[in-house]
Amino acid sequence: MQAILFLIVLFSGFVFIYLQQRKQNNPQYFVPLSAWGSTVLIVYLSIIELQNKSFYLGIILALLLLIYLNYKRDKTQLINGLLFNFWFGIFGIYLGFHFFQTRDLIVLGLFILLFMLVLALAIFGMISLIILLYWNSLIVLKREGRSLGNLLTLILAIALSMLLLYNAFIINKIPEYLVYLFAILPFSLGYFATVFLNFATISMIYQLNRPKLKQDFIIVLGAGLLNGEKVTPLLSRRIDTALNFYQRQKQKTGHPLKIIFSGGQGPDEKVSEAFAMKQYALEQGIPEEDLLLEDLSTSTQTNMAFSKQIIDSYNIDHVKVIFSSNNYHIFRAAIFARQNQLRADGIGAKTALYYLPNAFLREFIAIVAVHKKRHFLIIGIAGLFLLFMAVITFLIPQ
Prior knowledge:
The protein is of the alpha/beta class. Among the domains are: 2-120, no CATH class; 217-351, 3-Layer(aba) Sandwich (Rossmann fold). It is 67% helix and 8% strand. The chain has helices spanning 2-22, 30-51, 56-73, 79-102, 105-144, 152-170, 176-182, 184-206, 233-252, 273-283, 300-312, 330-339, 356-370, 372-395; strands at residues 217-221, 225-226, 230-231, 258-262, 291-294, 321-326, 344-349. The strands form two sheets. A five-stranded parallel sheet has the order 5-4-1-6-7. The protein has a two-stranded antiparallel ribbon with strand order 2-3. The termini are far apart. The model has no long low-confidence stretch (mean pLDDT 84). Residues 216-365 form the DUF218 domain.
């Protein structure tokens, strides 16, 4: 009976929230639906725990609260991804233990859902991943052209193919000391795969930013121009996201908001990215007095640095700032904002699905570069250990 009541309350709430969101100009489904589902689930699990006089859910929620508070303190730490992944694992163990205690069907359903997710990742496997990467690389190269940035999924696919061939045909035919020596390659791939998982997790969580409609400035990060003078479809999505927020804040709160278009003029561009973005906004009917130009920057780092100078010139106490970019880019942009003492969260514009794998790989490489000393120190220590083992095995064969 409890399970049936839970499902009725859960789906009734889903329907109500969905209908309410549809009435809005900018409907947001994921966050309110997730919040409702989580709330109902916590209440349901709490009732079962009280009936069984246990308190394990309190420990799980306390751990999640600590991780969340650490995330709120600094959203740009990559370790937050590791902590959230650790919590997901603990929650899965809790569900399994809880089911064996209560035999509750809802708990079983959740446990099976998590298990199927892990199983799907396992079944997906190396071969399926390689096929997907080759397929994605062909689409990206066909639609976006040939460039080093667009070759990342192809390069990764080739690297994984070589590793697969090595494990299948070579590893059993070479001396043991060479196995140790070559082990640095799969170790490096495994290490960076783990770091990528943490990066992907925290990037997806960062997408859930919902800033209040009380901002003073919104920075739009520039990108390359079409024919050196017009905004590209990718850049227009960033601008549209900012303009949508601007219009909603203006309509609902009336709080004044300035839009800073940030982007300099590249060597192959006729005008600055900031100027082209401003012209696009003017065509959408945005008043010119609300548009500011930062046309000196050449990177995300300088986007934030020079935009902060403009913001500081207004001398606003407790200034509130957000920025707009494509969804795959906002986490790294937030890191640069914090490095420039600019407390600003990002709102992400949608990106074509086919482009996301390549884009996320590019962002990941840039994130690794930010902390390259730490990562390559770990790889270096592992490499020295494996080299030592190779020498020992060579000198003292078994």
